[in-house]
Specification:
It is a single-pass type I membrane protein. It is found in: Membrane. The protein has 285 residues and is an alpha/beta fold. The protein has one domain. It has 15 helices and six strands. It has a six-stranded mixed beta sheet with strand order 4-3-5-2-1-6, sandwiched between helices. A hairpin with a 7-residue loop joins strand 1 and strand 2.
Length: 285
């Protein structure tokens, strides 16, 4: 009887171990499957208060020969390309997607927080407008991990590339209905960013804890419909598109990949997708 209980317990424990979430780590080493030298995968958060790269991250940057971000943030045409993609298609305007009452609320909100009125951004894609008040969500001056990585790579005279183009990223937000994007701006304006501030504060705490599974969970549970209901467009499809690029690039040169931490965790995250391809992906502690 004791032996049977032991066997059952062992099987249960084995299942639990296999079902465990990924370790808490933002830095992961990619090796095996024919790679001559390891590459590294690092989870970023696009807006932070402080940037503190530890010795492991510095070492990984030193051991690699190039930097890959989600997009090439060193591209001199980046800003011009983004400007071209700012407008909604087919002459749609933000004011046409919301009620007159809500347009007044949004107009006052924009004047207060970004110093412009609705009429000047009325044709902009709502997600572009939302990005303008991101700095207001933080209780500190905004810093960019990606730009710091670009700076360090330049100092090492290394090239910077993107896993996708700016056009690819803009296209994602053309696939999410403008009406839904507009409704999120109305929600933000009506509660004066209270919910957004609380969510980003929680995300920063989870990020500092290096909990990549937690980052994915908070996105899935977000009150923001764009984050919670369009995970295939925002995360999963893009993760899948990146894998062949990561495979090809890593075989050519040891590379430091830095993407949003939400892309790392989960069954459809970059880590497990690479493991399914036969790579050894381990947390760097």
């Amino acid at each position: 009887m004791i032996r049977i209980i032991f066997i059952i317990t062992s099987l249960v424990l084995s299942f639990v171990v296999k079902a465990q979430d990924l370790e808490k780590s933002l830095l992961w080493k990619i090796s095996g499957n024919g790679l001559e030298k390891p590459s590294y995968l690092f989870g970023t958060m696009h807006v932070v208060c402080e940037i503190n790269f530890d010795d492991d991250i510095i070492k990984a940057l030193d051991e690699t020969s190039q930097l890959y971000l989600e997009i090439d943030m060193d591209d001199p045409k980046l800003q011009a390309t983004m400007m071209k993609g700012m407008m909604m298609k087919d002459g749609v305007t933000l004011s046409s997607l919301i009620t007159e009452e809500d347009a007044i609320i949004v107009n006052d909100f924009l004047k207060t927080n970004i110093g412009t009125s609705l009429k000047f951004v009325d044709k902009f894609k709502p997600f572009m407008i939302s990005s303008m008040f991101i700095p207001k969500l933080l209780d500190c001056p905004m810093k960019s991990i990606e730009m710091e990585l670009v700076k360090m790579s330049k100092e090492q005279q290394e090239e910077i590339f993107g896993l996708e183009s700016v056009e690819d990223q803009i296209l994602v937000f053309d696939k999410i209905p403008y009406k839904i994007q507009a409704e999120e701006i109305v929600k933000t304006a009506k509660d004066n960013m209270t919910s957004d501030k609380a969510e980003i504060k929680k995300m920063l705490a989870i990020y500092e804890d290096e909990d990549i599974e937690g980052m994915l969970e908070i996105m899935n549970e977000s009150e923001n419909i764009i984050s919670s209901e369009f995970d295939d467009l925002l995360l999963n499809d893009r993760n899948s598109n990146w894998i062949p690029i990561i495979e090809k690039v890593s075989k050519d040169k040891p590379t430091f990949y830095a993407v949003g931490a939400g892309h790392l965790g989960g069954e459809k995250g970059v880590i497990k997708l690479l493991r399914k391809k036969g790579y050894h992906v381990e947390a760097v502690k």
